[in-house]
Input
Amino acid sequence: MKKPEVIDVKTHADDRGYFIPITNLLNEELRKRIKRIYVVGNFGRGVVRGFHYHKKEIKIFFIARGAAKFIAINKDNPEEKYIFVTSDKNSQLVIIPPGYANGWMSLEEGTILIGISNATLEESLKDDIRFDPYKWGDVWEIKSR
Output
């Protein structure tokens, strides 16, 4: 099984503004399998979304505005945990393969996520197993450093 990963996305900017090609870094096979692109907005910081896993679905996330903390945990081996923090100031794709419980928390008010999936909404709902977002402890805590 492939592991969750983050891919840096190059922002192209000039005197007109900027352009971020979020799917160009995906391999051709995955790009051909995209069935759904969606937007999720959180009004406040600290809002947790998701925390479920899929047997078949691949999810790709991009933060268009704000910042977010992503958690991915191997449901069969919870010690295998991935934590990614990304924002609109650090353009990245977060890729979650099947088999990993995953969710995200907004770190800023007004955070907007773009989600990309290889499943329709109907297929995703049939492939969805949800967990309490605190099943594996307070993975959402922001620790002082």
About this structure: The helical segments are 28-32, 121-126. The two ends are 33 Å apart (CA to CA). The chain has one domain: 5-130. The longest helix spans residues 121-126.
